[in-house]
Amino acid sequence: MIKKIIQVSWYEKQYETQEEHRTLRKNFARLKKHGFKGMRERLDKDYAKFTNNYIAKSRIDAKYSVMKVRLFFLFIFLVFTTYYLGIKSELYESKTALIVRSMNQSSPASSLGLSLLGMGNSSQLQDSKIVEEYLQSLDMFKQVDAKFHLTQHYKSDAIDPVERLSKDATTEEVVAMYNKHLIIFYDETSGILHISFLHVEPKKAQEILKYLVLRVDYQINEFNRRKAKKQLTFVEHEYKKAKEKLDEAAKKVEAYQNEHLLLDPTAEATSKSGIIAELEAALSQKKLEYATKKRYLNDGNFELISLNNQIKEIKNSIENAKKNLTGDKKGRLNRVLFAYEQLRMELEFATEVYKNALLQLETTKIEVAKNDKTLSIVSKPNLPDGYTYPDKPRVFITILILTLLVYGIFVMLASIIRDHKE
């Protein structure tokens, strides 16, 4: 009926000499006098009269179609403008900037040179990406949610109806909303990690961001501590094994010394070798003395007989001493010395292994205790003075431009289609 009133009004205005808006006044009068049904019957008669003029009807139909398209785009423009300028929640953004550094990182000059070349620091990049993944993780969200009740906030009236989550929203949807309000950007040139958080309350945005920075500071070193603790468990196990082997080797040496009643078989062998050398020297001297006296004494002379007996005794002593060193006896000194040297080498080797294990154990304990990474805060989380999103002037201009652009494209396509039909 509205269409009929508009078209009849246009027809009377363009093709009859009626004054402007006569149709509206006339139908209003009909409504008061004859009621809605009577008004509609008389309007249908006027519309039937209008449709008999095919040229006028064609032109007015085209004009009406253009008006509908314009009203449609105007409606779209008003809907989006009303939402973004009047309904959408105003979000305050708290910002901070961090640098994750390693205690074992190369010198600043070297890092600066790499940054100027656009290469950055691979360890720093990896640490920053780990921080980014951790902040966006479900575990991090659960900690923030437990402290600031974000799930309840995202389902409350503080969020506009379009962005607001439903009462039965899933955990994945809530985490997606949390990550939407968490903005992370890593500058590869400077190595600075920029973190922002959006909230409808400026103070709450700052508090949440401070908490995130605090958790990051703890977590970047917790990864390394967990790794070091696993390594410490392994090193402690190896240390215990090394100590057991050392104790076992020491007991073997002690038992061997007690069995052969020798403190140091090496010194014993050296001593016996010296005795043999002295006996051989005495034997040579006695032989020389015997040969000299034999030239002018008879064989039955007492001195010759005595020298001969001394020579025999010295020979027996040398032979017995050599047998103790290298004879066939089970307890000969060379066998004892060889077995002892073998046990002593095992003890020395076990001692070296024990020293290395002990050194590694102490080094690993230090690694567990210290912070391998440090978090440098370039700028602390700020308290925003005004909302950041939406940027209303920019949004208004963008909606206007997009609406006009789409309307122009639509009109151009409609004109092309109409030309092809004609």
Descriptive tags:
13 helices, 3 domains, 4-stranded antiparallel β-sheet, 422 residues, single chain, alpha+beta, Bacterial polysaccharide co-polymerase-like, 73% helix
Characterize the structure shown:
There is one protein chain. The chain has helices spanning 2-15, 22-51, 54-87, 108-116, 122-135, 138-148, 150-154, 171-181, 202-260, 265-294, 302-326, 333-369, 392-421, and strands at residues 92-102, 182-187, 192-199, 373-379. By secondary structure, the chain is of the alpha+beta class. The chain has three domains: 2-87 and 392-421, no CATH class; 92-228 and 374-379, Bacterial polysaccharide co-polymerase-like (2-Layer Sandwich), CATH 3.30.1890; 237-369. Strand 2 (182-187) and strand 3 form a beta hairpin.
Mean pLDDT: 76
Give me the count of strands: 4
Most strands sheet: 4 strands, antiparallel
Which fold name is given in CATH as the topology of the largest domain? Bacterial polysaccharide co-polymerase-like
Principal-axes shape call:
rod-shaped
Summed up, the helix count is: 13
Structural class: alpha+beta
CATH class of the largest domain: Alpha Beta
Distance between the termini: 30 Å
Within the largest sheet, what's the order of strands?
2-3-1-4
